[in-house]
Here is the input.
Amino acid sequence: MGVGLGKGKSKGESEMATFEMIEAHGKHEAIYYCHDPKVGLKAMIAIHDTTLGPALGGTRMWNYKNEEEALVDVLRLAKGMTYKASAAGLNLGGGKAVIIGDPKTQKSEGLFRAFGQYINSLNGKYITAEDVGTCVQDMEYIFMETMWVTGIPAEFGGSGDPSPYTAHGVLMGIKASAKEKFGTDDLKGQRVAVQGLGNVGTHLVKYLIEEGAQVIVSDIDPDKIKKHVDKYKVRAVSPEQIIFEECEILAPCAMGAIINDQSIERLKCKVVCGGANNQLAEMRHGDFLKERGILYAPDFVVNAGGLMNVFVELEGYAPDRAFEKTRKVYQNTEKVFSIAKRDNVGTHVAANRLAEERIETIGQLRRRHPGKSSSRAFTTLREINNR
Here is the structure.
């Protein structure tokens, strides 16, 4: 393990830049660099906070421009997982991993098994799952080297693809947001613009159609658009137009930072509620949404359904129980709106307070009454389930 040096920088300059970036993204408990040139592995694991339990977060494989971009991404995502788990009421901490590489051309069994060995060396402090650029097959390779992985195939006792559960949680968030904004959670006739037709977006479209919503879709892949138009008779617009479409609800389900200085004044929606991570480019953009009267359902509260699903997998998987658990996203979203009104703050601030209050409360209890930690409890449980 070691820190890669930026091109054209001295060792001292690169190390300073790395530590400055880490400090700028808040306190993290640990950051691990994983490198195995024989299989082309260059990866990072960030553990943000384990107050509530072991850090759980997916492994993203992406063709990052450089190591600095990958580091910023893994730090942001790990912190987001801490807040997501806390706001969801789960006894899990936050972590994330990124693999630097092209998921279309650079995947191999050796790469993921080598990465699994790194995860195994952490002895349960970090538990991985699939994310952007990785799939169930990749998790199966990791599972060959460590038990600290979720989202593995059902034949191995896992839950498989978590996206249907993530999407159902997003639907619950949309319904809670509709109730808050329009006085009813009935989506019949409501115009919902879904940006991104990946696994989560695809399942969300299905759920929305079943609810009677008028769905508008877009994706960078024309084949995905055609498939949805043919199957559901939905209206499609260009990727550049979708977030500016006139609608009741905008559901971002692609990459993050779509609410930014360039886009915010052009929004024609009344609610922003979707599955994408880090939808706000900066926290201040949440204040701008509030000023414009656009209700924002914070992403890490709304997209927690997949995390709830893999949490159930750690306990001993039951699909019905996992699906039922995702219904709690509705109540959790309502809690955020309640705190926002109580404290007269934006919902983005309220969501952070919901998560931080729980971490502080549980942290104080553990300091006053030290005992068996959630991390150790999960270790025991996972070991039993894998015998």
User: Anything to note?
Assistant: Residues 11-80+93-149 form a domain with the Rossmann fold fold (CATH 3.40.50.10860). The CA atoms of residues 147 and 153 lie 13 Å apart.
